[in-house]
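Help wanted!
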Amino acid sequence: MSEKLLEVKHLKKYYPVKSFSALPREKKYVKAIDDISFDISKGETLGLVGESGCGKTTTGRAILRLIEPTSGELHFEGRDITTITQKELLPLRKEMQIVFQDPYGCLDPRKTVGQIIARPISLHEKLSKKDERARVTELMEVVGLRPEYISRYPHEFSGGQRQRVGIARALALNPKFIVCDEPVSALDVSIQAQVINLMKTLQQQLGLTYLFISHDLRVINHICDRVAVMYLGSIMEIGKKEDVYGNTAHPYTQALLSAIPTISENAGSVVREKLTGDIPSPLELPTGCRFHTRCKYSKEICRQTAPPMCDLGDGHFCACHFAEDFAGGKTCNVNQG
Amino acid sequence: MADICLEVKNLQTSFFTDRGVAAAVDDVSFSVENGETLGIVGESGSGKSVTSLSIMRLLQEPTGRITGGEILFDGKDLAKLTQKEMRAIRGNRISMIFQEPMTALNPVYTVGRQIAEVYRIHEKLPKRVANKKALEMLSMVGIPSPEQRFKEYPHQLSGGMRQRVMIAIALACSPKTLIADEPTTALDVTIQAQILDLIKDLKDRLGTSVLLITHDLGVVSDMADKVLVMYAGSVVEYGTRDEIFGNMLHPYTRGLINSIPKMGNDNGELTAIEGMVPNIYDMPSGCKFNPRCPFAKSICREKRPALRDVKGHKVRCFMYDENWEKEGGKDE
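Answered by r_m:
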């Protein structure tokens, strides 16, 4: 077993909701992340997949402490980073970077690409102007941007190129860990493929560890080693890609996989499993299993008790009462706590 | 041969801006038969949305203008109608669903009123009858507890529900043609599957023909009878669904398919299409795809290929010319 780079234990993020009533009553919370635990080993890519509003982005940001978690523990390279001050966190920022979803919103329009990429370097490392420039040019070459573009502004670039700038900025300090928050969602398919290839190559060359957040199961399948499926703030299923995609244990994962529009040569050959209804409001989570309102297998027990995370072996976990039945004959050990 | 419901012939749409003339749609022709779904695929900037806006005559005039070609619908050429004449057709005989259901709906009116408006304007129905029909539409598009939803405002509905309301508005007058411009792009996969099924189901029930515009080849493969692939304003490949997906010919179409990560366990490199979509003010000479094409030869840089019939469908590429083998000047 390789070394763990990041461990997340019982992470929670609750947002209090303002009540407009004069009467004192129970305080309401939006449970954006509700008790999730996972870890990421060095050099691997963990995919975090789910529909909008399931808490993927919040998780990504809470790990970097860009959002303060409500409770839970975060360990980075064995060190507890949950409660250390932002000042103590500063040297660690070099190790942990983020690539954002929107390549239009995450670059300062009034700074040149060179300035944008140089910013983390000038903050963390005291380099001479010349060395700094050399580093920026090198980074631009690494991500496939022509170094002549160093004094251009973000608006002069296409979406794919901007995302490359964002990646270069994240790489500037040789980080160990990068949170990739939907880095290709805003791009066209042909450009998306270029960026995915780039990210995979960089990972191999620089030994990076990724937390790759996406709503696209096809992209996750392509780039990740392990996958975590989130629904309404909690992890429904986590495991090796082969297990989650091949021996799918959770009905929600099954439905997600089946909803992907696939290209087939014959019309009408695809039979889809439809998921009815909408995602429930995170303000009023369903009782019991949070997926039971949309689950076609739901039984009485699902409405009453929340399923425990059960261990299907080999790092494959699933939060479903009937995981055993779905996961092709695997035995399930209920793991409390 | 079924009746042709909408026929677009050599459509040219250009935008006249300070930076020059942008030919957003360049000689596009296709036809849609009654009850058929035509999928238009392409990346951003390929002209697929401008094509639909031209048919609906919703271009920002005078900046954007139809500069040539015909749009034949119901025995009329839509390209030549006045806006007043167009208003009687739009939303009535031909209607449209947009990508962003939040911005397409009016936030200050209830959804019921917005659906009833269609009947009141096009069918001149009194308020009570219009409301009743609007309520029927709401339940037809599968909105739970329609009586209650009728009185709600768009912000109270989820994205999928809003798109259902948009579909209800678009189909209120049982149009002959429905244009769906990226109807599911803003939605989650599970909701996308629901909406696509709804469109398919209503299309069959009402016999509407659908023009489905999307960037997602998966959606097209699932929904369309015929497929039109656009690149930089031109049609590069056009044929029946089975022809295109069973035997795709144009290097761009193949590149698009290969760019999509496959669901198998193959973790190799994705075969991306190199480079970017060309600048609309500065199109490459010859074939518009030649700077990104792995097969380009010198003829591709000199002449613009015509749309030709190859193996049962139309392709705009020199590769299928009998003289192709003899052409020289392939890039290293």
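OP: Thanks! One thing I noticed: The interface with chain A takes residues 43-44, 158, 160-161, 188-194, 196-197, 215-219, 221-222, 225, 241-242, 245-246, 255-263, 265, 267, 269-274, 276-277 of chain B (CB under 8 Å).
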